[in-house]
Amino acid sequence: MASMERAFFSSERAPRRTRGGVLVNARERGAVLVEFALILPVFMMLVLGTFTGGTAYYRRSSIASASREGARYATLHPGSTLCDGTVPNCSWLYDVATVTEASAQGELGPSSTGRVICVGYLPTPGSAAYSLTWTTSDDVADAPTSLGAAPSSGTTMSVCGTTMTTSATDRQVVVVAQRSATLDALWTMNLTLKSASFGRAEANT
Q1: Which residues contact 100 (CB under 8 A, 6 or more apart)?
Q2: Residue 9 pLDDT exceeds 50
Q3: In whole angstroms, what is the distance from residue 122 CA to residue 173 CA?
Q4: 177, β-bridge pairs
Q5: Which residues does 78 contact at the CB level (< 8 Å), separation at least 6?
Q6: Rounded CA gap, 58 and 194, in Å?
Q7: Four-residue CA torsion sign, 98, 64, 173, 77
């Protein structure tokens, strides 16, 4: 009789397996699976957020470097004549935009989402200021946009969405580079990556 009772109770027991020398029953294994199912989505979202965040950071660094290269080029190659709104005499504006695009490692191409390259020219007071903006195409044949005459020295003026201060002795340029990006984690965030760099050259150069 005692042996029959022992057999009965042992048959009711859940089968046990060993894991690392520790006995694990079916209920514990089920709990582990539930915990894993709860943690996995959060873990995957963190991984995705890290990846997309790294991509956005890389793109931000690329366009910041590109805008600096464009401003550096504009400073070193200011042109032999003042920009007067015509394509021939403002060709260096197009050169600056081209250098900016080429320096972005493919992040500012015409097909880049939300791509904007704006090169702004602020001369000495009384001369006309101009800007050149590229969005979905490289418009090398379009004349720059006139922004009106530069105000008196020390006065601010909006050029390519940035605030610049006129100088009586220097011609100035601003290079603004911008594109869109997304950050995916617990939710999707639409980002605008933007960088502005400035350069200047003496008015008589």
Answers
A1: 66, 67, 69, 70, 108, 117, 119, 175, 177
A2: no
A3: 6
A4: 117, 195
A5: 92, 171, 173, 201, 205
A6: 13
A7: negative
Distance from C-alpha of 119 to C-alpha of 176, rounded to nearest angstrom: 6
Residue 120 and residue 161: Cα distance in Å, rounded?
Answer: 9
Separation between Cα atoms, residue 74 and residue 132, nearest integer Å? 13
Whether 112 and 179 have beta carbons less than 8 Å apart is answered as yes
The two three-digit tokens of residue 13, written as one number: 């027991």
Residues 91 and 100: their CA atoms lie apart, in Å, by 14
pLDDT (average), residues 164-173: 92
How high is the pLDDT of residue 8?
Answer: 45
Residue 116: the pLDDT is 94
Average pLDDT along the chain: 81
What is the pLDDT at residue 36? 72
